[in-house]
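Quick one, tokens below. Sequence please?
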């Protein structure tokens, strides 16, 4: 028995429209068709085979989250992303060097979810 891949990440959002705009415009994720669930949501492509699923209002209390929870996206050019995030007025921490030599930026979505953008140590920063 083995885990074969990460298929998707699902996160709750309070304002689906605002979150869709963030993930499309700020993170530039392509949208995906979504099954006709009985609650609002949106799906996006992450890389080649993974997905991000936004879950809108399901009539349940919005769960509290630990601000240290995050998911990470490997990107192509950390400097270009930092420039884009600055121009877009996104809420993010400037790039910093991880102890393993990778460069990373942490950006926050409209609901306070943290997304790490990074380039591996073997990539120039």
């Amino acid at each position: 028995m083995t885990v074969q891949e990460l298929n998707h990440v699902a996160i709750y959002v309070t304002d689906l429209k605002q979150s869709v705009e963030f993930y499309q415009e700020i993170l530039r994720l392509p949208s995906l068709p979504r099954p006709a669930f009985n609650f609002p949501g949106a799906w996006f492509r992450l890389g080649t085979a993974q997905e991000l699923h936004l879950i809108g209002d399901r009539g349940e209390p919005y769960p509290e989250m630990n601000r240290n929870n995050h998911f990470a996206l490997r990107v192509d050019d950390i400097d270009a992303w930092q420039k884009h995030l600055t121009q877009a007025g996104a809420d993010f921490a400037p790039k910093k060097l991880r102890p393993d030599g990778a460069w990373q930026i942490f950006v926050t979505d409209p609901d306070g979810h943290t997304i790490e953008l990074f380039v591996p140590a073997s990539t120039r920063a």
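The domain at 8-58+67-119 is CATH 3.10.180.10 (2,3-Dihydroxybiphenyl 1,2-Dioxygenase; domain 1). The chain has one domain: 8-58+67-119.
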